[in-house]
Inverse folding.
């Protein structure tokens, strides 16, 4: 986000929040989809965006997935 949403319409403020932006100079990484591109187009005067050359590998979101990725056995596997 490069410019504040203060003084802009309510729907533009809501779009910025939906993109996960809360502060100026904050960065977020989002998956490329038509919906995201439409939101970026709507608030293009408030944000700056670039496409990454290669998508980053998705990180596990749950503790179980983290355990599996790190090779640590889950509680069910420990009890078996």
């Amino acid at each position: 986000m490069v410019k504040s949403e203060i003084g802009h319409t309510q729907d533009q403020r809501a779009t910025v929040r939906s993109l996960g932006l809360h502060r100026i100079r904050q960065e977020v990484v989002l998956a490329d989809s038509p919906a995201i591109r439409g939101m970026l187009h709507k608030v293009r005067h408030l944000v700056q965006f670039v496409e990454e050359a290669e998508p980053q590998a998705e990180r596990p979101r749950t503790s179980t997935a983290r355990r599996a990725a790190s090779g640590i056995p889950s509680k069910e596997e420990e009890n078996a």
About this structure: The two ends are 50 Å apart (CA to CA). Residues 1-51 form a domain with the Ribosomal Protein L30; Chain: A, fold (CATH 3.30.1390.20). The chain has a mean pLDDT of 80. The first helix runs from residue 10 to 18.
